[in-house]
């Protein structure tokens, strides 16, 4: 097996009594687009700052290409960071900003000029090379920040909430743009984000952090389809949770009806649990389904591609969300107040301790 | 509110400023172009002699001397003040207001008293002499008071708080991620300071420098008290023309040159601020 | 943390600068309580030099003159400066010329304003005295009051003025009952600042006081005394003057909370 590009091994970071990062281990492969996903205070930014060299781990080590880099200062690491605020130098032009990092490597003037030129082409800002950052739009500044870090051809490019400051439409475009650039340059990207949708769209693999600990790491599909914890299930996408209890070796809903599902290990008889199922895994009717529930439509929302229903049901204190494809919805006209039955299969049901 | 009411509220103050600042200043400007009367009065005939006299080698030398002392004081104050402001900005955020308050506090106490404190320290029977003798030094101490150095120290001491304030403003608004970005791109701490922090905080330095220079070059209290009348600066010269030599037109001409220097420097400062103005939108 | 400024170096710089700023003042403080009055030897704690001050008729008269000048010029400047601040802030157009005139008194070198006023008063054959000092002090004092009040008005929600008018209040009533309460702390802070500046001001007073001893102010008295050398009375006087200005400023700062003027 080939050695991972970056290996984070049992890393800790404490600030006084606060454990910002608590025993995290991760491997990141060459050429990967990796996302560190978590809410604020989850430790994702601290972890990123340790990778960049701005924080020294309290314990554990970071290996880059097999070498321990934990104590190497940021200006000596082949790792570059694109800052959340972009941190462009306001007194330098776009071209000077991009050239700065190359000047630090003491490259020949001509090579610097050529690489800056090339980079300006990649980010499509050749016309604005002489502008100062305050004469650029938000999206343009974001691209300059990216170019400034990328032009150094780092082994690892770190991006701290790269799209956080952009409006929604631009963010969508830039998600794909970042993927294209990453592919084109063949550089490993590590993105920190609190936006699960962004992580799902862009990343090859996602690590979910919570309270400084690594909760789960896997491909977007693994994380979405087989969350390992109730938190992960809730954090990524939309999930219905039905309160339940283990009774007689099976899962019983709060009405007492059994829910067919694989029970995870360690759930004792009588233990409180929740059954989780994605809205798109619920189908109208119960033909061929392992489970079913009946509820009243409390609200309906039409989203173009799909139709969302809120069902009030005795199985759950919260309304159950159902997401029907346009096709499925067309077969039967629905209106608020209608009673409908929906079914789902056992393998689409995840069970977590309550 | 309509646009007429503001004028009605502003007019008393504006009248006051016009009557007791604008007109008197214009009067001085005019005075500089009149002839001095035989008995010290003013003869109302146009002349350029006063302006020419300012550039007479005798007075030009005093100008250069004053500029040298003011320049030295300004440079020293900027170095000390910038260092102090940088150190304050590097302290934890919640402590900064208090540190800044105490750095600026002396500025709001009496100028004469602050200058006097240095007489107490520097004079022949002063504290520094006492400490030196107490430590067993019996030899002749170099003269401390009534020297150019004493004047420079006095000027730096008096204006340092303002420089700290002026330098602190851009330093505290500096986005810390900018320094980190520079480090991340491979720059050492010193290079980061020289190429990123310093250029962005130039407005504060310029403001501090201009302030100290302008107030020093026109100062007559500090040279009189700490220089002991040993040498003259522009301020002393202006003072003398008005209160002892009774050559008002020449005094007016001298102060016009003073104003011209100030305006020139303020323009430079505005320029420096505008050059670094990109800083404004990135501040977080 | 890598790349951050060296904490020990920063603390060293702060210690050096604060020592430079505070040692001279502290020495003065200590000496003013020295029984013997000389800097060379500590002969015991005493407040006798403060007592000497009270017995010195010249100093007491100068202090009284200063109080008169500072009080009257502060009152005038507070009214004029506050009105000016309100006028400037509710005006929609911001003129560069207007801004310059309002800003000028704060940056014009004292000596220039001093000789300008002296020339002006003598041209008009005005007898110099306390009244001319007062008139002159109002010039810079009103500018400082104006700047403190304007800083407060910048964050003032002007829609409440419209609300007041909408509810039927006249302009005067609106100013009195809605605008003034909101800016009162700033007005008082500005007044305190003006008072401090006026108490401490020397150069302009020196030029506009005229000959004779009747209109001498405290800073003029201090200047005259310092020229003759160090005496224990000056130490005590210096401490009092310094304490008054610093106390007034600290109070002003507390009221205003918006930072020091000029910031």
From TrEMBL, chain A:
An example of a Gene Ontology cellular component annotation for this protein is: ATP-binding cassette (ABC) transporter complex
Q: Where is the ABC transporter domain?
A: 6-236
- What domain of life does the UniProt record list for this protein's source? Bacteria
Gene3D superfamilies assigned to the protein according to its UniProt record, in alphabetical order: 2.40.50.100, P-loop containing nucleotide triphosphate hydrolases (3.40.50.300)
Q: What GO molecular-function term can you cite, just one?
A: ABC-type polyamine transporter activity
For biological process, the GO terms are:
putrescine transport
Q: Which UniProt keywords apply?
A: ATP-binding, Cell inner membrane, Cell membrane, Membrane, Nucleotide-binding, Translocase, Transport
Q: What is its EC number?
A: 7.6.2.11
> What is the uppermost EC class here?
translocase
Which Pfam families does the protein's record reference?
ABC_tran (PF00005), TOBE_2 (PF08402)
Q: Which family does it belong to?
A: Belongs to the ABC transporter superfamily. Spermidine/putrescine importer (TC 3.A.1.11.1) family.
What do we know about how this protein assembles, alone or with others? The complex is composed of two ATP-binding proteins (PotA), two transmembrane proteins (PotB and PotC) and a solute-binding protein (PotD).
Task: Supply the name of the protein.
Answer: Spermidine/putrescine import ATP-binding protein PotA
- The scientific name of the source species is Antarcticimicrobium luteum
TrEMBL record, chain C:
KW Transport (keyword) present: yes
Gene Ontology CC, one term: plasma membrane
Q: How does it sit in the membrane?
A: Multi-pass membrane protein
A Gene Ontology biological process noted in the UniProt record is: transmembrane transport
Record keyword Transmembrane helix present? yes
Q: CDD domains, per this entry?
A: TM_PBP2
Q: Where's it found, cell-wise?
A: Cell membrane
Q: Per its UniProt record, what InterPro entries does this chain match? A: Bact_Polyamine_Transport (IPR051789), MetI-like (IPR000515), MetI-like_sf (IPR035906)
Q: Which UniProt keywords apply?
A: Cell membrane, Membrane, Transmembrane, Transmembrane helix, Transport
List, alphabetically, the Pfam families matched. BPD_transp_1 (PF00528)
Q: Which residues cross the membrane?
A: 12-33, 62-88, 100-124, 130-153, 174-197, 234-251
UniProt domain ABC transmembrane type-1: residue ranges? 63-252
Q: Which family does it belong to?
A: Belongs to the binding-protein-dependent transport system permease family. CysTW subfamily.
* Protein name, as recorded: ABC transporter permease
Native species: Antarcticimicrobium luteum
